[in-house]
Design brief:
The longest helix has 36 residues, at 36-71. This protein has helices at residues 2-12, 17-32, 36-71, 78-107, 112-118. The model is unreliable at 10-15 (pLDDT under 50). By secondary structure, it is mainly α. Helix content is 79%, strand content 0%. The chain has one domain (2-122). The termini are far apart.
Length: 127
């Protein structure tokens, strides 16, 4: 189980889902938002989202590193893994709540058409 955990966390790298769509949206903002001031606000919001995603990835990676350091090649007990997973899940809940809030704040700053251009994969979403 620990090997699977380490594989997922380390092979996942720092470019997990949210970072990819944030980068895409920042690129799309150049053509989606015509007003320079609004585009800057949108890009700043996306930059904040990316920063938060990086903080999350760094925190999870740090927890995993601490777990490896603490237990090394030794057997990890179920209780120890439960503590670790509780921490990872708490980070995940906090991150998810933050990113969702940030997306809603961003959505309030753009039109439906601009949103669809920023996030083409989300074009079926309603505003």
């Amino acid at each position: 189980m620990l090997i699977a955990l380490m594989t997922i966390l380390f092979l996942g790298g720092s470019s997990f889902g949210p970072m990819l769509y944030i980068d895409e949206a920042r690129d799309n903002a150049k053509s989606a938002i015509m007003d320079d001031d609004q585009r800057k606000l949108v890009r700043d919001d996306l930059k904040s989202m990316k920063k938060r995603a990086k903080q999350y990835a760094k925190s999870v990676k740090g927890l995993t590193k601490d777990l490896r350091k603490e237990f090394g090649d030794h057997a990890v007990g179920e209780a120890d893994l439960d503590v670790y997973w509780d921490q990872v899940f708490a980070l995940n809940v906090s991150f998810s709540d933050d990113i969702i809030d940030m997306r809603f704040e961003l959505r309030d700053k753009v039109s439906r058409e601009e949103w669809s251009a920023l996030f083409p994969a989300d074009s079926n979403d309603t505003q």
